[in-house]
Amino acid sequence: MEPAEYDLMDAAEQGMWWYRALHAHAIAALQPVRIGPGGLLDAGCGTGGFLARLRDARPGLKATGLEYFPAAAARARAKAGVPVAIGSVNAMPFAAGRFGAVASLDVLSHAAVEPDAALGEMARVLAPGGLLLLNLPAYDWLRSAHDLRVRNIRRFTAGGVRRLLGASGFTAIRTRYWNALLLPVMAAQRKLLASAPHHGSDVAPFPPWLDRSLHAVTVLERRLMRLGLPFPAGGSILATAIRA
Length: 244
What we know:
Radius of gyration: 17 Å
Largest sheet: 7 strands, mixed
Helix content: 40-55%
Distance between the termini: 32 Å
Order of helices and strands: HHEHEHEEHEHHEHHE
Strand order of the largest sheet: 3-2-1-4-5-7-6
Number of strands: 7
Structural class: alpha/beta
């Protein structure tokens, strides 16, 4: 990503509605899972927002970060208080089978990432039976100026994610769309209001009333999902799978 995007992320990820919703979905997916003694790797942890939230939600869970950009890795260490290695998800500096779970949130979409290689590495560093948790941006037609800022060159569909995970040897694959209730707003904002290449990042302060309103919609959506309501489309895809 552009260095300025790390600054925006670092400032926003503890309070902005989008990060709060993303982290809540990820932590909920991990909640019922017994993670082995190797703990969890956040592969592509950025400035550490998810690691910090995970520490608060599961204080006994051992966690490690991996981040390519050294300045972001330093921020993640300070924010989350956990070890953060510097390296690429395409070739991770960890022994095979080290971790009981790997989480990777909005990383496979980046230009510097090779999805097949990264998934192969995630499978390699996971212990047999370990859990993989991914979040990915949905739909190529949603690509916008924001994707240029964060160096996203690909977006995904649920079916495409299942095929990628299956080809990498994962089993028990589950995918679901989220940010579904706000998808029409997201599409209008990205394709109509913020489509110019010079437009700034989506990671920016929102007026407090708007931030609260958007977050409330994501809370309602999570409640509906817990009741078993599936959403056929959404702005993001959450996927879980097991390393065979």
